[in-house]
Write a structure and sequence with these properties.
alpha+beta; three-stranded antiparallel β-sheet; 6 strands; about 35% strand
């Protein structure tokens, strides 16, 4: 036991002095700079994620525009109609200051979507838009059904009369 303790003392003490552990201030400064570096890296990762999403959207939009050009073979479903997606079993309830919508969406198209974006809009009793929000569903393959959950912020279920769920885009 004494050998292990003496080994630890002779190995750890010199390393602590080399790291500046004899005074706590340099160690705290080094930890603070490490924390800032990690924070900066996390912000850069978030910015890269946003760039990747915008690039995916641009690629998707360019592909759909190119399909519609004359001389190209038209796609199987050039336009998404209201019959392309079935929306079933929709329920909604107020939670905190917003309303949560839950239900099922069935893909009736002949396309597989790894990423499909939908928009939910709620209307006031006078017909004006109370609020809207986007939500996405991953891996919505042709003729498959997936559950969804979407939230409308700052609108309670008593404050709107009807809602509309629309397919925005998919890739």
């Amino acid at each position: 036991m004494k050998k292990i303790l003496s080994l630890l003392i002779f190995c750890l003490l010199p390393s602590l002095f080399f790291l500046g552990a004899s005074e706590p201030q340099p160690v705290l400064e080094k930890l603070g700079s490490l924390e800032k570096a990690i924070s900066n890296l996390s912000f850069r990762i978030l910015a890269l994620e946003k760039r990747i999403i915008s690039l995916e959207e641009k690629i998707f939009l360019a592909a759909t525009r190119q399909e519609k050009l004359p001389g190209n073979i038209p796609p199987e479903n050039p336009e998404q109609s209201g019959d392309d997606f079935s929306i079933e079993d929709v329920t909604f309830e107020t939670q905190y200051n917003g309303t949560i919508f839950k239900g099922k969406i069935t893909n009736n198209t002949n396309n597989d979507f790894q990423y499909s974006l939908f928009k939910i809009t709620v209307y006031k009793k006078n017909g004006s838009i109370a609020d809207s929000n986007d939500f996405y569903i991953l891996n919505l393959d042709r003729h498959s059904t997936r559950k969804f959950e979407a939230k409308i912020h700052d609108v309670k279920k008593e404050e709107f009369e009807k809602y509309l769920i629309e397919f925005t885009k998919g890739s």
